[in-house]
Amino acid sequence: SPVRRVLLAILGSAEQAYTPSGLGAVFVFMAIGGFWAALQAETRAVFWGGMVGIVAVLLYTALTTGAVLRGELSVTGAFLLNHLLKVLEGMLGGFIAGARMEARG
User: Fold this and answer.
1) Which residues make Cβ contacts (< 8 Å) with residue 35, sequence separation at least 6?
2) Which residues contact 75 (CB under 8 A, 6 or more apart)?
3) Are residues 63 and 21 in contact, defined by beta-carbon separation less than 8 angstroms?
4) What's the sign of the alpha-carbon dihedral 87, 93, 96, 99?
5) Can you say whether the dihedral through the CA atoms of 79, 80, 83, 85 is positive or negative?
6) Tens-digit pLDDT profile for residues 32-90
7) Is residue 3 classed exposed, middle or buried when 0-12, 13-18 and 19+ CB atoms within 10 A define those classes?
8) What is the residue-wise DSSP string for 23-38?
9) Which of 90, 94, 89 is closest to 45 using CA atoms?
């Protein structure tokens, strides 16, 4: 179902998360999360946006460490790239929020 695919994409926990629609969902949600977090901060918007991505990676890692250790989930290049993109997308959201705050004065 579409809802399941989006949830899996956010968590990055299945092969479906690495489809174009799954990666697109991760992009949208991490950018929105970074934007929202950066709006709450008065300074360093890109930093706080990136922190959203880092927290997402840490949560995913905590949820899947057992599966990786049991060999049920392999750590591939796409797996690592997905984590890097989460951080970069959060930073993008922070950048957009920072530019918006700066434009408003």
Assistant:
1) 49, 93, 94, 96, 97
2) 68
3) no
4) negative
5) negative
6) 999 999 888 878 999 999 999 999 899 888 878 887 888 877 888 877 888 898 899 99
7) exposed
8) HHHHHHHHHHHHHHHH
9) 94
